[in-house]
Design brief:
By secondary structure, the chain is mostly helical. 74% of the residues lie in helices and 0% in strands. The protein contains twelve helices and no strands. The longest helix is centred in the first third of the chain and has 26 residues. The model has no long low-confidence stretch (mean pLDDT 89).
Length: 269
Protein backbone atom coordinates (compact mmCIF):
# COMPACT_ATOMS: atom_id res chain seq x y z
CA UNK A 1 0.00 0.00 0.00
CA UNK A 2 2.91 2.36 0.82
CA UNK A 3 4.50 1.64 -2.56
CA UNK A 4 1.22 2.32 -4.35
CA UNK A 5 0.76 5.64 -2.53
CA UNK A 6 4.34 6.65 -3.29
CA UNK A 7 3.98 5.70 -6.96
CA UNK A 8 0.75 7.69 -7.17
CA UNK A 9 2.53 10.79 -5.86
CA UNK A 10 5.36 10.31 -8.35
CA UNK A 11 2.93 9.88 -11.25
CA UNK A 12 0.95 12.96 -10.21
CA UNK A 13 4.17 14.97 -9.95
CA UNK A 14 5.30 13.83 -13.41
CA UNK A 15 1.87 14.58 -14.87
CA UNK A 16 1.86 18.16 -13.52
CA UNK A 17 5.44 18.82 -14.66
CA UNK A 18 4.66 17.42 -18.12
CA UNK A 19 1.53 19.56 -18.39
CA UNK A 20 3.44 22.68 -17.36
CA UNK A 21 6.20 21.96 -19.87
CA UNK A 22 3.78 21.29 -22.74
CA UNK A 23 1.69 24.38 -22.03
CA UNK A 24 4.81 26.55 -21.73
CA UNK A 25 6.13 25.15 -25.02
CA UNK A 26 2.90 25.64 -26.98
CA UNK A 27 2.26 29.15 -25.65
CA UNK A 28 5.84 30.46 -25.50
CA UNK A 29 6.22 34.10 -26.50
CA UNK A 30 2.47 34.75 -26.55
CA UNK A 31 2.02 35.69 -22.91
CA UNK A 32 2.90 39.36 -22.49
CA UNK A 33 1.70 42.78 -23.48
CA UNK A 34 5.12 44.41 -23.71
CA UNK A 35 3.85 47.87 -24.60
CA UNK A 36 1.77 48.53 -21.49
CA UNK A 37 1.34 46.59 -18.25
CA UNK A 38 3.95 43.84 -18.34
CA UNK A 39 6.42 46.08 -20.14
CA UNK A 40 6.05 48.69 -17.42
CA UNK A 41 6.97 46.21 -14.69
CA UNK A 42 9.99 45.07 -16.71
CA UNK A 43 11.17 48.65 -17.15
CA UNK A 44 10.76 49.61 -13.48
CA UNK A 45 12.36 46.35 -12.34
CA UNK A 46 15.34 47.10 -14.59
CA UNK A 47 15.65 50.61 -13.12
CA UNK A 48 15.64 49.18 -9.59
CA UNK A 49 18.26 46.57 -10.53
CA UNK A 50 20.57 49.49 -11.36
CA UNK A 51 20.31 50.77 -7.80
CA UNK A 52 17.62 53.41 -8.27
CA UNK A 53 15.04 53.94 -5.53
CA UNK A 54 11.33 53.39 -5.95
CA UNK A 55 9.18 56.54 -5.48
CA UNK A 56 12.34 58.66 -5.57
CA UNK A 57 13.76 57.94 -9.02
CA UNK A 58 10.73 56.25 -10.55
CA UNK A 59 7.01 56.35 -9.71
CA UNK A 60 4.82 53.29 -9.22
CA UNK A 61 1.16 52.79 -8.38
CA UNK A 62 1.44 49.64 -6.28
CA UNK A 63 3.36 48.47 -3.23
CA UNK A 64 7.14 47.98 -3.25
CA UNK A 65 7.52 44.25 -2.60
CA UNK A 66 6.80 42.64 -5.98
CA UNK A 67 8.58 45.19 -8.13
CA UNK A 68 11.68 45.03 -5.94
CA UNK A 69 11.61 41.24 -6.31
CA UNK A 70 11.56 41.75 -10.09
CA UNK A 71 14.57 44.01 -9.70
CA UNK A 72 16.31 41.31 -7.66
CA UNK A 73 15.58 38.76 -10.39
CA UNK A 74 17.27 41.01 -12.95
CA UNK A 75 20.19 41.60 -10.58
CA UNK A 76 20.77 37.87 -10.01
CA UNK A 77 19.78 36.27 -13.33
CA UNK A 78 20.48 39.12 -15.72
CA UNK A 79 18.32 41.75 -17.39
CA UNK A 80 16.26 39.61 -19.75
CA UNK A 81 12.60 38.79 -20.16
CA UNK A 82 13.49 35.09 -19.91
CA UNK A 83 14.70 35.73 -16.34
CA UNK A 84 11.17 36.77 -15.38
CA UNK A 85 9.71 33.85 -17.34
CA UNK A 86 11.92 31.40 -15.43
CA UNK A 87 10.96 32.77 -12.02
CA UNK A 88 7.27 32.88 -12.92
CA UNK A 89 7.46 29.29 -14.16
CA UNK A 90 8.84 28.30 -10.76
CA UNK A 91 6.09 30.29 -9.04
CA UNK A 92 3.49 28.40 -11.07
CA UNK A 93 5.05 25.13 -9.92
CA UNK A 94 4.87 26.19 -6.26
CA UNK A 95 1.29 27.38 -6.69
CA UNK A 96 0.37 24.06 -8.29
CA UNK A 97 1.73 22.23 -5.26
CA UNK A 98 -0.17 24.48 -2.85
CA UNK A 99 -3.41 24.14 -4.81
CA UNK A 100 -3.04 20.36 -4.85
CA UNK A 101 -2.29 20.23 -1.11
CA UNK A 102 -5.22 22.45 -0.13
CA UNK A 103 -7.77 20.73 -2.35
CA UNK A 104 -6.50 17.31 -1.28
CA UNK A 105 -7.43 18.12 2.33
CA UNK A 106 -11.09 18.64 1.35
CA UNK A 107 -11.29 16.18 -1.55
CA UNK A 108 -9.18 13.35 -2.91
CA UNK A 109 -6.25 13.03 -5.31
CA UNK A 110 -8.48 13.25 -8.38
CA UNK A 111 -10.26 16.41 -7.24
CA UNK A 112 -6.95 18.01 -6.29
CA UNK A 113 -5.35 17.09 -9.61
CA UNK A 114 -8.37 18.41 -11.51
CA UNK A 115 -8.06 21.72 -9.65
CA UNK A 116 -4.40 22.01 -10.59
CA UNK A 117 -5.19 21.16 -14.23
CA UNK A 118 -7.83 23.91 -14.39
CA UNK A 119 -5.37 26.39 -12.90
CA UNK A 120 -2.67 25.51 -15.42
CA UNK A 121 -4.86 25.42 -18.54
CA UNK A 122 -7.20 28.33 -17.80
CA UNK A 123 -5.03 30.73 -15.81
CA UNK A 124 -1.30 29.98 -15.71
CA UNK A 125 -0.43 29.94 -19.43
CA UNK A 126 -3.59 31.29 -21.04
CA UNK A 127 -3.73 33.72 -23.95
CA UNK A 128 -7.33 34.79 -23.62
CA UNK A 129 -7.11 38.15 -25.45
CA UNK A 130 -5.06 39.23 -28.50
CA UNK A 131 -2.48 41.12 -26.43
CA UNK A 132 -1.91 38.39 -23.83
CA UNK A 133 -1.34 40.04 -20.46
CA UNK A 134 -3.66 37.99 -18.21
CA UNK A 135 -1.70 34.93 -17.19
CA UNK A 136 0.92 33.97 -14.63
CA UNK A 137 3.88 33.84 -17.02
CA UNK A 138 3.62 37.53 -17.95
CA UNK A 139 1.09 39.11 -15.57
CA UNK A 140 -0.26 42.62 -16.02
CA UNK A 141 1.37 43.41 -12.69
CA UNK A 142 3.86 41.32 -10.68
CA UNK A 143 1.76 41.89 -7.54
CA UNK A 144 -0.77 39.42 -8.99
CA UNK A 145 1.76 36.58 -9.08
CA UNK A 146 3.54 37.26 -5.81
CA UNK A 147 0.40 38.31 -3.95
CA UNK A 148 -1.58 35.21 -4.94
CA UNK A 149 1.37 32.98 -4.07
CA UNK A 150 1.69 34.70 -0.68
CA UNK A 151 -2.06 34.26 -0.10
CA UNK A 152 -1.95 30.54 -0.88
CA UNK A 153 1.08 30.11 1.38
CA UNK A 154 -0.82 31.94 4.12
CA UNK A 155 -3.89 29.71 3.77
CA UNK A 156 -1.68 26.60 3.67
CA UNK A 157 -0.02 27.64 6.94
CA UNK A 158 -3.43 28.43 8.45
CA UNK A 159 -4.66 24.93 7.67
CA UNK A 160 -1.52 23.46 9.24
CA UNK A 161 -1.95 25.61 12.35
CA UNK A 162 -4.86 23.45 13.50
CA UNK A 163 -2.79 20.27 13.17
CA UNK A 164 0.42 21.37 14.91
CA UNK A 165 1.05 24.12 17.45
CA UNK A 166 4.13 26.05 16.36
CA UNK A 167 5.30 29.59 17.06
CA UNK A 168 7.18 29.58 13.77
CA UNK A 169 3.98 28.67 11.96
CA UNK A 170 2.09 31.53 13.61
CA UNK A 171 4.93 33.92 12.90
CA UNK A 172 4.94 32.87 9.23
CA UNK A 173 1.18 33.52 8.94
CA UNK A 174 1.63 37.05 10.28
CA UNK A 175 4.67 37.58 8.07
CA UNK A 176 2.78 36.56 4.93
CA UNK A 177 -0.12 38.88 5.78
CA UNK A 178 2.39 41.69 6.25
CA UNK A 179 3.94 40.92 2.88
CA UNK A 180 0.57 41.29 1.18
CA UNK A 181 0.29 44.78 2.68
CA UNK A 182 3.23 45.56 0.40
CA UNK A 183 1.53 44.43 -2.83
CA UNK A 184 -1.81 46.02 -3.78
CA UNK A 185 -5.05 46.99 -2.12
CA UNK A 186 -7.23 44.11 -3.37
CA UNK A 187 -4.75 41.48 -2.23
CA UNK A 188 -4.35 43.23 1.13
CA UNK A 189 -8.11 43.30 1.62
CA UNK A 190 -8.48 39.61 0.69
CA UNK A 191 -5.65 38.41 2.91
CA UNK A 192 -6.74 40.60 5.85
CA UNK A 193 -10.31 39.33 5.62
CA UNK A 194 -9.07 35.75 5.62
CA UNK A 195 -6.66 36.49 8.46
CA UNK A 196 -9.39 38.02 10.66
CA UNK A 197 -11.77 35.11 10.11
CA UNK A 198 -9.01 32.57 10.75
CA UNK A 199 -7.92 34.41 13.92
CA UNK A 200 -11.44 34.38 15.36
CA UNK A 201 -11.85 30.67 14.64
CA UNK A 202 -8.31 29.75 15.73
CA UNK A 203 -8.40 31.48 19.11
CA UNK A 204 -11.96 30.35 19.88
CA UNK A 205 -10.82 26.78 19.16
CA UNK A 206 -7.82 27.19 21.45
CA UNK A 207 -10.03 28.49 24.27
CA UNK A 208 -12.29 25.45 23.96
CA UNK A 209 -9.18 23.30 24.18
CA UNK A 210 -8.36 24.94 27.55
CA UNK A 211 -5.16 26.56 26.28
CA UNK A 212 -3.64 28.86 28.91
CA UNK A 213 -3.75 32.64 28.64
CA UNK A 214 0.03 32.86 28.43
CA UNK A 215 0.04 30.58 25.38
CA UNK A 216 -2.68 32.65 23.72
CA UNK A 217 -0.71 35.85 24.40
CA UNK A 218 2.42 34.23 22.94
CA UNK A 219 0.49 33.20 19.83
CA UNK A 220 -0.81 36.74 19.37
CA UNK A 221 2.67 38.17 19.84
CA UNK A 222 4.05 35.84 17.15
CA UNK A 223 1.35 36.95 14.72
CA UNK A 224 1.84 40.65 15.42
CA UNK A 225 5.63 40.41 15.23
CA UNK A 226 5.43 38.48 11.94
CA UNK A 227 2.96 40.98 10.46
CA UNK A 228 5.03 43.97 11.44
CA UNK A 229 8.42 42.66 10.33
CA UNK A 230 8.17 43.11 6.51
CA UNK A 231 6.49 46.49 6.96
CA UNK A 232 9.21 47.65 9.33
CA UNK A 233 11.97 46.43 7.01
CA UNK A 234 10.65 48.42 4.04
CA UNK A 235 9.95 51.45 6.23
CA UNK A 236 13.55 51.46 7.49
CA UNK A 237 14.80 51.04 3.92
CA UNK A 238 12.80 54.01 2.63
CA UNK A 239 13.80 56.03 5.69
CA UNK A 240 17.29 56.24 4.19
CA UNK A 241 15.88 58.41 1.38
CA UNK A 242 12.73 60.07 2.78
CA UNK A 243 11.44 61.65 5.96
CA UNK A 244 9.22 59.63 8.29
CA UNK A 245 5.93 60.56 6.62
CA UNK A 246 7.15 59.90 3.08
CA UNK A 247 8.83 56.63 4.14
CA UNK A 248 5.52 55.45 5.60
CA UNK A 249 3.68 56.58 2.44
CA UNK A 250 6.15 54.66 0.28
CA UNK A 251 5.75 51.52 2.40
CA UNK A 252 1.94 51.60 2.19
CA UNK A 253 1.80 52.96 -1.36
CA UNK A 254 -0.16 49.96 -2.59
CA UNK A 255 -3.01 50.84 -0.21
CA UNK A 256 -3.20 54.60 -0.60
CA UNK A 257 -2.05 55.38 -4.14
CA UNK A 258 -5.65 55.58 -5.33
CA UNK A 259 -6.50 58.10 -2.59
CA UNK A 260 -3.54 60.31 -3.53
CA UNK A 261 -4.25 59.95 -7.25
CA UNK A 262 -8.04 59.70 -7.81
CA UNK A 263 -7.54 59.86 -11.59
CA UNK A 264 -5.89 56.45 -11.33
CA UNK A 265 -8.99 54.96 -9.69
CA UNK A 266 -11.37 56.60 -12.19
CA UNK A 267 -9.46 55.15 -15.14
CA UNK A 268 -11.57 52.37 -16.71
CA UNK A 269 -8.44 50.24 -17.10
Amino acid sequence: MLINARMKKILIFLFVISMMTLLATFTFGKWPDLLTDFGRSLYIGWRLSLGEVLFKDVDYQFGPLAIYLNGLVFKVLGVAINSIYLVNFLLIGILSYLIYSLFYTVSNWFGALLSVSVFLVVFAFSHSIPTGNYNFMAPYKPEANYGILISYLMIWRMVNSFETVSRINLFSIGFLVGCNFLTSVELTFASCSTFILWSLFYFSTKRRQKVTQSEIKTARACLVFGLGLPLTMFFLYFLQFFNYADAAAATFNGLFYGIKHPQFVNNIF
